[in-house]
Specification:
- One of its GO terms (molecular function) is rRNA binding.
- It comes from Peronospora destructor.
- The protein is an all-alpha fold.
- It has helices at residues 16-32, 69-75, 82-88.
- The two termini are 27 Å apart.
- The relative contact order is 0.11.
- The mean pLDDT is 70.
Length: 89
């Protein structure tokens, strides 16, 4: 099973040009060591957190915990095939 690592770049005070340069440097290091970049995200304003208030407490059930794609893949366990289920019990 391949091992995945997550790299987060956060630099709120720098201009986008500098952040892009840092990303290019990191990407070149990763690929030069034989690594692969699976996906990139630019969350921009979405990364800001908001805290719930009593008025929004009824809406809490609509929010789900975000699980990154790399973690979903790592936690995936396939179902046991039907013809093997009897042997397990």
């Amino acid at each position: 099973m391949p091992l995945y690592k997550q790299v987060l770049l956060t630099n709120l005070k720098s201009p986008p040009k500098d952040v892009a340069r840092v990303f290019q440097d990191c990407a070149s290091i990763i690929t030069s060591q034989g690594g692969v970049i699976r996906s990139t995200e630019n969350r921009g304003g979405e990364a800001r957190r908001t805290f719930s208030t009593p008025r929004t407490s009824e809406k809490r059930h609509s929010f789900k915990q975000y699980v990154p794609e790399w973690k979903r893949d790592a936690l995936f366990e396939p179902d046991v095939p039907m013809h093997l289920q009897d042997k397990i019990k």
